[in-house]
Specification:
about 500 residues; alpha+beta; Glucose Permease (Domain IIA); 3 domains; ten-stranded antiparallel β-sheet; five-stranded antiparallel β-sheet; 9 helices; about 20% helix
Amino acid sequence: MTKKNKATAIIITLVLAIFVFLGGFSNDKKEILMTKYQVYLDGKAIGIINDSKELYSLINKEQSQIKDEYNVDQVYPPKGFEIESYISYNNNSSSVEDIYDHIKNNKSFTIKGYTVNIIEDSKVKYRVNILDKKIFEEAINNLIDSFVDKEKYSDYMNDKKVEIKDTGSYIENMYFKENITIKENYLSTSDKIFTNVDDLTKYLMFEDENANKEYIVKKGDTIKSIADANELNPAEFLIANPRFTSENNMLAVGESVNVALIKPKLNLVSEEYVIEDTEVKYETETKYDSSRPASYRNVERKGSNGIQRVAKRVQVINGATPEGAVIDKDNTYMIKDVVNEIVVRGNKSYNPGGGTSGVITGVPYDDGSNWAWPTNVPYVLSSPYGWRWGSFHYGQDITGTGYGSPIYSIGSGVVRAAGWGGMVGKASGMNVVIEHPNGYWSVYAHMSDIYVSEGQTVSRKQKIGAMGKSGVATGTHLHLTISIGQPYAPGSKFINPMVLWGK
């Protein structure tokens, strides 16, 4: 007999022996082999059933309320539910009803839908459950409509080439800063599941619990006054109330407006090319006449502001221009030249009392009526003084002149701080703080370099540092803060820096 035939004979013998053994065992116990199903919940065995389909059918039948609430045809077992089949002689099993009751009393059932993960820096920032992907797509479109001009967005989506004759803008690129993934999933009915576009739009746009915060307009109210009182800036108010198109729109007494805090969960970035005309304020040149008393002041030549056509590339995030704009110098030019004002002042020495003038000693004469602009021209004004996304911004951000470009003192004074952090905090990075002789203080934050030192006397328009992005900053810019009194000291007061230049 060959080796192959021997092996075949052994296998047949073993199979016959097994059948004889099983037959004898079955006859003795008077039982037959059956398929059983072991049910687990969160890894723990909760019972054995004879028919798995019967359990699924019972769940779907009994959970009609869930089907009605979510408008679905099928309800599924909860997360953590598992079922395994096996062969057994044991006829003992639990009833499907008992297993169903155990599940119902311990876990929430699920329905089919989608989970959207909003990911930032490789971490899930937000997780959103939706029934239909179209709900999310439409909510995203609503978000875009809130922050982006519809005509510009249409041109961008249709790849329409836009030519700017004089002034205007167009979108070069658009994207979300976060990564977004959508995956089909079984959603627990104990979790929030968005079933309509409006609710999801509000969730993505506003703070969770305050998507609708009603305010009734009173006599004398304006959009700006209502926004300020509710920690919004006017642009955020307009987003929350899209029926208004400008902060100058009239309000009706008794009208209801939404003053909910805008706090987007996504950051929509629109990279735009912009050409606009900006006013360039004239400087005042002072001549001194030693034959005239100090009270003498005469305007020898009146000043007039210029107009500059500025071309720039900016990133607009959720409707706001942040730091990091870039000026297109090749397409930036003056339309109307600036004419500087010339003022003659007397400085005849006269001090009969022998006392002091009450100003900081050693500071060049400067009464604070002619503040210098702190950066080169042209520039871009980004985040203004006021509320933004629920926190107060105490300065004016200026960008566009480039990393390392000069920063100038807005007026004469004494440097009270120069370095990292200090009296204005580490978030300000490298900064300079100057006390001016008229009670004003100026702060220049996020510098890349500092050219002055503490205690040094500086003059108006003196170069004190270079623009940078040190500290907490997302791009190259100057954060200019103006206060009456030492910044953050008791009794001091911050003011809008643009007031100094009549803006």
